[in-house]
Each structure stands twice: as C-alpha cells, then as structure tokens.
Amino acid sequence: MSQSLPDKKRRKTENEPEVANDLPENICYKALSEKFSELKPFLVPVQGDKGHNWCWIDFKDSRAVRTLNRALLRVYFDLDVTLPEDSLCPKVANRLNYLRWIKCNISSDFPLELLKGLDIGTGASCIYPLLGARVLKDCSFVATDINEESVSVAIANVEQNKLLDKIQIYLNPNKKVKLPLDNPGFSSNSFTFCMCNPPFYANEDEREALRNAKADAPSLTTLAKTDELFTEGGEEKFLSEMADESKVLGDRIVWYTTMVGKKRTLGILKAKLVSLGAKQIREGTLVQGRTSRWVLGWSFVDKRVFSVEVCKMDRSGGAWSWFKGIVEELGIAVEQVNEEYWKCTAMAMTWTRRARRQKKSRNTASCADPGLARPPILTFLVSVAEKKAESDVSRDDSSGTAAPPIVSTISMYLKSEDEGSRALCSLYNFLLRKQRDGGVNAQ
C-alpha cells in the first residue's frame, strides 16, 4: 500500500511577505538598494568588462557598511535593526554562519525540544538573538551585556521587531562574570546553549600589531565601544575564565559555544577544556571572504543523540512509504509530532525471529499480551530528508534536460545511547535485511 509523504512546509498566504531568512550566495547591491532605498547614496558605479556596469560598496566607509547590514537584515530577514554609529556594526553573513553552525551541530541534538540560548555580550544590535529568532525554530534567548547604553538600544531593537516573547535582555552588573546564571535578578536557571563573540584584543597596541601583521585584519577605522573591542588579557584570558565558569555551572548549560578569533587561542582553549573534564568538544571553521574565524563548543553532558540512517531511495516519498509500511505491519505506532519528525512506539520487539514465530503460531496481530499494561520497549524518532541527487555525468541523456532524481533518506534517533539502543539496533538490522532481501525500491 502506497503511503504519501506529508507536506513538510505550509504554503504562504497571499498577503504574507516573502522572506528568505537566508542570504543569497551573491548579492546584487543595486537590486538590494531598490528594496532598501537608504542604500542608494552609497552605491559606487563600476565599469566592467564588455561594457557591463555594476555597483560596489566602499567597505572603508563605516556609514556604508552600517547601511548595507541594515538592508540585509530588513530585506532577507524582515528585521528592522538600529545600528548606532558608536557601536560595533555586526557583519550579517559572519553572524549567520555562527547560527548555522549552532543549528547543524547543537540544535540537532534536541529534535523535539524548545531551545533556549544565552547570548553573552549581545551589543546594541542584539544581532544573534534577532537572527536566531528567524533561523532557529522554537528557540528563545536571554541576551546579556555589561554596557547600559547597549542594553537600552538592544531592548528597543527587540521591541520594534515584536520579539519580546522570544528575547529577554539582561544588564550584567558584574563585568568579571561571563555566565551570570547565579547573578541576583537573573531570570533563567538553565539553557540549551550559550554563544559568545568575545573582544579579541587586550589593548590598542595588540590590535595595531595584529593589523600590521595581517592584511585582512579588521580596519583600524572600525567604530565600536571600548568594551566591544578590548578586554583585559585579550580573548585568551576571557575564554579561559569562561571555561572555568562553565566547569562550575556544569550541565546547567548543555552546550557552551564561542567564536574564536585566533587559532593559537583555539588550541589553548581545547587543551584546557580537556583538563576540565569536558565530555564533548566540537569545533568548526567559519570562512567569510579572506577572513577565518573558529567556533568551539563543549559540554559536560554525555552524548544525547544516537542515530542511524535506514535507507535511501531515488524517488520522492519512496523511503517514507517503504519504512512506514514495514513498521506499521510490525505493530509499531507512528505519530507525526511536527514538520520534521515522527514518533514511533514499539510495545514489543515484534521484528525478531522469535516474535514472528510466536505471532505465526498464535495467529495474532502481535506477540504482546493486550491485557497487560506495560511501558513501550522502544520509543524513537524518525526524520525524512529529501534532496536532489548529484548529476550522473555517465548517464546517456542526449536531451540534457533530465532533472536529477530526488533522493529521500530515512533516519532513526534516540535521545541517548542507553535508552533503547539495543532494541533500535535490532530493528535497524531487521530493516537492513528487508532491504537486502526485498529491495528497498520494491513496493
């Protein structure tokens, strides 16, 4: 029996704005200025090859850069953000890359949970929580800063974007505390993750030395508050102290993450985290133009998600149809819980040879006794991912117009390796045998 894959995305109504919540790979500044007219005075006409004319932005002009980032936030994320001239202007693409890393490496550990993030040093722009409200589903934030003026502007930015239900702003009165969970008046006791973009420099001398040593270092004309650029001991001391605080807080924040500006700091911090007993460490490299930054995440919690990939099929909805038909035949209940996940509940290991022999001999639908109330032997999540297959250059296609097939993939998840992993592995092996014996493409 064929099963269709439920629609995973709600269609927009006619009056809803079309917001991508992402940046295009290449941005046409002229086209962007048509949607955000304040950018037009900063366009620099350029005569290209073969008579093609295009426009550029002078990135040494702080007003132009500030206006460009406001335009990106407004057009692509439907965010109206005030960026004061005396505060650090966040580069949207760079901040978005950090949030993408969080989404891929942290939020995937919590597929059915509401996320709660702590932003350390949010600044006047409150950029991470505002972007996070668009990029991370079901996520709320508490944003902290030590600067009263920055906090005031951040609150205004949250209010004018009508995100008070998702973002709280906290003025941290203690500059020595990076993670203020135990501060008087702090509203939250625990978080899914924290994120931080620490000041890179110890002082102006270090900033100038790094600028002279590296051609693509941040411009010395960058306008920012002192506490946004400098901290005693630089980022190395700042992050070392943050690591010490994380050890004390333990699992009250499941994942501690930070941006790292210097590769030397990355190595030092990883070594310290190992000595502090971090149970998981994850890192990533964020490249924007000629500049590289690193993201480091660590946790004092054992690995939460145990997952296996079940099958792939070169047909939209095919893997789901195959999987759902088999598990329902086994008496496993399937319930859709949101756009991305289904919950499967097995009351008995009906896929084992012993259970199937018992079922056959008793001629019943299940080997479990319906008169006995018992907890499920296995509860797991299932996700379906679909994407276009890579082009097969060896395929003989004289027309050259054939679209690549859709590959659908089924994955099964447990919250942790010790919550039914043996039963899930047993079911996984059964499904592999079904693929081998009957062919995954058979219906």
TrEMBL record:
Source organism (scientific name): Coemansia asiatica
GO molecular function, one term: methyltransferase activity
Key word Methyltransferase present: yes
Cellular component terms (Gene Ontology): nucleus
CDD domains, A to Z: AdoMet_MTases (cd02440)
InterPro entries found in the cross-reference section: METTL16/RlmF, SAM-dependent_MTases_sf
An individual GO BP term: rRNA base methylation
Keywords assigned by UniProt, alphabetized: Methyltransferase, Transferase
Gene3D superfamilies: Vaccinia Virus protein VP39
Protein name per the record: U6 small nuclear RNA (adenine-(43)-N(6))-methyltransferase
